[in-house]
Amino acid sequence: MRSHVNTLEQISNKQFSRRGFVAIAGTAVLALSACGSPTGDPSTGDSAKLTIGILAAPRSLDPAQLDGGTQSYVWGAIYDTLVYYDNAGKLQPNAAESWEYSDDARTLTFTLRKGMKFSTGAPVTADAVVANLKRNKATPGQQQSKMSAVDSVEAPDANTVVVRFSTPDQSFIYNMALEAGVIADPATVDESRTPTNPVGSGPYVLDTSATVNGSSYVLKRRDDYWNADAYPFATITVRVIADQAATMNALRSGEIDASVVPASQVDSFSPTEFNVVSNSASSAGYLNLADREGTRLKPLGDVRVRQAINMAFDREEIVDKLLAGAGSPTNQQFGRAGEAYDPELERLYEYNPQQAKKLLADAGYPNGFSVNMPSTPMSLPFQPTISQALGDIGIRVSWDPAPAQNATASVAEGKYPMYFFLVGNDVAPRELQRQFHSSSQNPFNWSSPEFERLEKEAHAETDPDRRAEIFKELNAYVVEQALFAPIFFLHSTMVTTKDVKFLGDGTNGFPSIRTFGVAGG
After folding, report:
1. Is 335 part of any domain?
2. For residue 137, what are the domain limits?
3. How far is CA 365 from the centre of its chain?
4. Which of 115, 287, 410, 427 is the most exposed place for a label (fewest CB within 10 A)?
């Protein structure tokens, strides 16, 4: 049987350079790297400085247009969110000191903490939170789909926000810990300054004299922030770094503080000189078989074709040779640590090219078919393997270049019926919302009566055990219908200098400045 997996060394000599692989490895596991070691008193961090490197600059700092990923190092410092994920991935109070759902899960009440201020000194009130949520719902952009179930938002008093839903939405509270839950100053948010220099409620403000938008963002800690002691770095610089290979070299030489390191390079970092923290299953790599009705590519409308694609990949060999063992094979779209994951589903699609060919023939495609997919920074390291695996069953792939800044837009507009994607694992309600209600993951607006029934039941269920059962049933439907072709869960390893403490354990894959502390602090 012919192997269709190329080692990293083979790949680097083919369609792209090793630089491409290292860059995408950083993207896949939400990589960060720091340029310039922390300074100041390590016991207090009162003058400590940290620079974090990211692959791409924030597209916008306007709350309605915020993206996730490593861009959150910038906006997550400028804006408070209603709640937050702690380093174990649990929701914790933040701007909201408490929250409570009604018995029917259709009303959510937040109680805000008192004494919060925007960076201008203006008070953060319930009216301000209401204005932000209403703006997200009314403004086309990244947050609008996350507000689709919101029927109304009101502030009965200065410290209470009441959200009412037209139908229960279990993902909403989790979204309030991320970009959809940020609190901007409603008095200035519609001004021209907001996309590059917003007025926020968070622990840091932009130092505009030192910031170069698109290149380097310098953040100064606010002395008047309500929880300033939780942030040990007085100054954080977020720098756009295009070459992650150079970042690895800088980490070895002591010029930077921290980075996610590819598995093949971990052994080069001595534990006596660096802190090494390994995290499992931080993100997932998969083919999104998005055109499930076959509107742009007719074959994808047949479930047998989608199942054939799932049988085309030798997932164990991909993990072993392409990921250097730093991952695990999977048939599932939902994260392994979440309530939807079911180990039994891993048996559904074994590597079987002959059976895949038979399914294609049964569907009316004995000679296969051709497809164009976008070549993005995410797909580059895996393109030879994908092309060969699909080619072995008769599916001919052509790759269209899509620059990093256009990677998401190229799939969100529905130009491509299928494409490779990498995304961080999350809680099941947010994974459900992201995979089926965002333009980048469901550009053809696919749905089905059975899917909608299961989704509605999952959102309406308030008992955790019963909800987990429904999510597993929904996951089984997704896998059996082959809506995606999941390939692997990607593990990650964070390496820091001895001056920096990494506080995460991999449970929470959301990039946050909260995951770093000063060693000894």
Report:
1. yes
2. 56-240
3. 35
4. 115
